[in-house]
Design brief:
By secondary structure, this protein is of the alpha/beta class. The protein has one domain: NAD(P)-binding Rossmann-like Domain (Rossmann fold), CATH 3.40.50.720. 44% of the residues lie in helices and 15% in strands. It is built from eight helices and seven strands. The chain has a seven-stranded parallel β-sheet, with helices on both faces. The structure holds nicotinamide-adenine-dinucleotide. Nicotinamide-adenine-dinucleotide binds next to helix 1 and helix 6.
Length: 254
């Protein structure tokens, strides 16, 4: 009988990964774990101190590309730079995102637009531009950061929830269209993760109340989300595509 072959240690040896928003939080933890698993990583971020952050992770195997990815020309320039330096892209992790919170009746049009531009449009355009490259090179892996907010209503999160639900829908369509090209596309949906973004959105009483609603009774760590990304980026998950991997301590099962 024919057997499936994959590395049981989920190694990413010599894979080329691009991580948006990789200078902090979940993206940074994922860059560190991808590196440990043998990948080369290009971090794309707007942070001033990006160069130093990239170097501190690894001086040669990790590079920083400073860019605001809400601009399509910037995304094209990033992809070209990665190709010039590393030759190809095997893994794209769309992690950059923003959470602008307000009651639905008070949310400004500008905050709605900013949320959609980064969380949805930039993730789509990055996937589209890298996807074309992956089609040419024979395959790849795209991982999109969604959120528990994609599957459940959260107070003051109207734009964020809408943007993350859009990510899950987009993930399914890309997975459907690109499976014949050996490209798998998946999403990850965490509960509150202890990063700058997570701590800002869930500081104080709202956070303590939220923990009571999570059966596991705690928030997550960026490294736990990075572990999901490693699995989805590895050959061990080759038959999983269009999936939304929820990591929420059971919050959304009730
Ligand atoms: N932290 C949580 O609780 C949580 C939960 C569920 C989902 N998520 C999602 O995970 C992803 C990462 O979140 P995080 O908590 O690590 O956030 P974070 O704020 O720690 O990191 C986001 C990174 O994106 C970068 N960024 C912002 N705008 C950018 C732009 N225009 N161009 C390029 N880079 C830009 C920031 O500089 C930052 O380094 C987001 O998509 C977020 O919605 C987070």
């Amino acid at each position: 009988m024919e057997k499936s072959r994959f590395d049981i240690n989920f190694n990413l040896t010599d894979k080329i990964a691009v991580i948006t928003g990789g200078a902090s939080g979940i993206g940074k933890a994922t860059a560190e774990l991808f590196l440990e698993k043998g990948a080369y990583v290009a971090i794309v971020d707007v942070k001033e101190e990006l160069e130093e952050i990239a170097k501190s992770i690894h001086p040669e195997r990790v590079i920083g590309i400073k860019a605001d990815i809400t601009n399509k020309n910037n995304i094209e320039a990033c992809v070209k730079k990665v190709k010039d330096i590393f030759g190809r892209i095997d893994i794209l992790f769309n992690s950059a995102g923003v959470a602008l919170l307000e009651k639905a009746e008070d949310l400004t049009e500008s905050d709605w637009d900013k949320t959609m531009e980064l969380n949805v449009k930039a993730s789509f355009l990055f996937s589209q531009i890298v996807g074309k490259e992956m089609i040419k090179s024979g395959g790849g892996n795209v991982i999109n950061m969604a959120s528990q907010a994609a599957v459940i209503a959260l107070d003051r999160h109207v734009a964020y929830c809408a943007s993350k639900a859009a990510i899950v829908a987009m993930t399914k369509v890309l997975a459907l269209e690109w499976a014949p090209y050996n490209i798998k596309v998946n999403a990850i949906s965490p509960t509150v993760i202890l990063t700058e973004l997570g701590e800002k959105a869930w500081a104080g009483k709202v956070g303590e109340d939220m923990k009571q609603l999570i059966p596991a009774g705690r928030f997550g760590y960026p490294e736990e989300v990075a572990a999901c990304a490693v699995f989805l980026a590895s050959d061990a998950s080759n038959l999983i595509t269009g999936e939304n991997l929820v990591i929420d301590g059971g919050y959304s099962i009730k």
